[in-house]
């Protein structure tokens, strides 16, 4: 369990770090981050707090879609937002001063998110709120993952855009490379994400 908790928090920190790097690249963010940044224009909250708030709402919706949260799901919802605020408040990631720096920051962020995903998923304490939502939607509708993910990500991107979120070339690059980045991390470690059996919160409480 100590190893699993270490993997969980290492993964969540790396995930938050990668998100901040993609945001700082100023080339466009992922759809969900565009939504979060758009919402802070209207809410008296930090970026991390908005991420936590949307995470809570997504967990609730996912629960009604039949997806029980795990401890990792709850930790994902809270600590990614927490780490994002810590990283941004302390200015650990400098503002890029050139297009080359922007591009490197974006690609490095995507790579780090891939490793963050590997570590927190390998902890097997529950997938993230947004991944659980996607799986629940696939289960309820019967549509393939790519269709459901496309509808969800496109809808969130459109909403984020109209709220003033940063949609740009980086958004497209993230959409095309984030999946392969996660897959690459799992391949290097000789694991498969679909073979990981996650503990639900209910199971852990009953033991």
Report on the structure:
By secondary structure, this protein is mainly alpha-helical. It has one domain. 72% of the residues lie in helices and 0% in strands. It has nine helices and no strands. α2 runs parallel beside α7 (145-162) and α3 packs antiparallel against α4 (71-89). The radius of gyration is 16 Å and the shape is globular. The model is unreliable at 201-207 (pLDDT under 50). It holds the Pfam family DUF6198. Keywords: Membrane, Transmembrane, Transmembrane helix.
Short description:
Helices cover 72% and strands 0% of the residues. With 207 residues, the protein is mostly helical. Residues 201-207 have low confidence and may be disordered.
Provide keyphrases for this structure.
9 helices, globular, disordered C terminus, mainly alpha, YitT family protein, transmembrane, about 210 residues, YczE/YyaS-like, transmembrane helix
How do the strands and helices of this protein lay out in sequence?
Blueprint: H1 2-24, H2 31-39, H3 47-64, H4 71-89, H5 99-122, H6 129-141, H7 145-162, H8 169-188, H9 201-206
Helix pairs in contact: 1-4, 1-5, 2-3, 2-7, 3-4, 3-6, 5-8, 6-7
Pfam family, one: DUF6198
Transmembrane segments: 38-65, 77-93, 99-121, 156-179
Keywords: Membrane, Transmembrane, Transmembrane helix
